[in-house]
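Hi, does anyone understand the following?
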Amino acid sequence: MKIRLLSTAMLAGLAFASAANAQEFDDRWYIAAGTGMNFQASDRGTEDAPFATFGVGRFISPEWSLDGELNYQNPSMDADADLNWSQYGISLDLRRHFLGEGRSWNPYAVMGLGYQRSEEEYDAFPSPDSPGEREDGSFAAKAGFGMQGDVGRVGIRTELAYRADFDDQSVAATDKDWFGDILASVGVVVPLGPEPVAEVAPAPAPAAPNCADLDDDGDGVNNCDDRCPDSQAGQTIGPDGCPVPVSIDLKGVNFDFDKSTLRPDAVAILSEAVQILQRYPDLNVEVAGHTDLCGSDAYNQSLSERRANAVYDYLTSNGIGSNRLVGPNGYGESRPLESTPQTNPECRSETNRRTELNVQN
């Protein structure tokens, strides 16, 4: 009968635990309460009886939990149901949980040490103080196994254990030094406090801006490559971020021999020069006219001035302020780009018959 009851209790506990979630490491304190059947050692002369437990504990690691537990049972005597035999105690129970990823239940082994207090009534006839009563305490040890899982907020624990009670003062069994009881129970585990929340890793500090992505002075050159971080808007900037002289190539603004009128090709080049000067409003230039080596110095001086005036007038008539233009200046034949004889026709050099714009710093 005892074996049948024990098997029934364990199967019920297994079915309950199999629906529970695997125990995860949760270091909150919890309370545990249980009830079950105490299958008494036959030498005690007592009936099997239900028992109850209440304890407090916590997981000290993902696999280990430690509980302090109180227990109570009050079986009837076999010989005389009117006589009481009650027992209560305290134990410290260590459980080793065998966790498995993805399992809905987890088995464990339990070991416990404690103290059991016995209150045994016995027939003391013919004494007028009958029934007599013995009160005594003894050391106890427990070992067993069980299963545990979670059902929502609470846990389910089912357990089968053997408890050795080293009670050597029993009236019913004076020749026994200890008794072995079998405990089968099902209980609940209720964590205390709010459910722990996984720590959220702090947001990584924003990465320091990469100099390659910055252009503090707005010159189009990133800070990594910018050797002149204080360049001003409107300046012509080189690949190193530093201002560079603007070179306006007007060597193509040439004139026919002994002429100061602008040719169509010269007008096209001057139109580009106007666009450059408009793009860089801080840029000032000198308008400088030149001649080849043909003719007298005085004549060539006058001719170079007329050529400079032709370019100057074109620039101002197309929106370039005269305050940005130095000149017009004529340099005659004093600055040839090409060295030629002064005799005609060898002196005729279109390269020397020109007007230039010289950038002013």
